[in-house]
Amino acid sequence: MKNNNKTSNRYGYSRWQRILAWVALIGIFICGMMAGAFIWQSKTGYTADSGVQMEVDACQMREKALLANIGQNIDDSWPDAANYHRRNADIYDRLVKWGCQENAGKYQEMRDAEFQVWDALNEIRKESVDNNPCDVIERTLLSNVIYNCGDSPDCHLQNAEIYSKIVEDGCKENQQRYAQKALDELQIAEGVRIDDSNVQKGEIRATINTYKKLQMQNEAKKYLNKVEKLVNPGIDFIMELQRVIEE
Q1: Taking the CB of residue 22, how many other CB atoms lie within 10 A of it?
Q2: Helix crossing, 15-67 with 81-98: angle to 10°?
Q3: DSSP conformational letter for 147
Q4: Cα(91)–Cα(66) distance, rounded to whole angstroms?
Q5: What percent of the chain is modeled with pLDDT above 90?
């Protein structure tokens, strides 16, 4: 017997039911595309925002690290005051290049101000040293001081030797000030060294020479005894330094 319903198919679905099925499938497809687009947009936006935030965090960290090295409360009557201002100017210059962009103008002004003070103090210093040899010696030696040694023991020991040399040959009125600077550099050099047993012979010699110039032979002997126990640099080297201390 023939089926008289012309709108039904062999599975018994009417034309209307088939249309509804296709509409439903198309709707599901469109919803899937929209959901995928929303997720992709959300991820993209999150990534962009995260990138901006990471850059802000990075520049703020760089600023914090550099600003920690800015010299504070500089007394312009110090013989080496000009060097401190020059160091500050160099740090502000780095802040202009590596700090946060919105702060660049402020750091430019501070850099230029430090350079102006540095120039002015240099002019005053030149006028005052013409008839004072000890000032010339101090000025020459101070030009070799490194103000951004960081965690390098060698660098701090080099500064300690320079300051102790100023104590020996510089102006008498500044001896106490530079002696303290030399001791501070020795302390920093020892503090930043990660492994005390890894001290090199050059570092040992520099420390002994600094104590000798400061006329602190007892401290030099104590240091030598300590190092001998830590690294055992050899009897010949120890005897050489003992002679330096006793000269």
Answers
A1: 9
A2: 170
A3: S
A4: 7
A5: 23
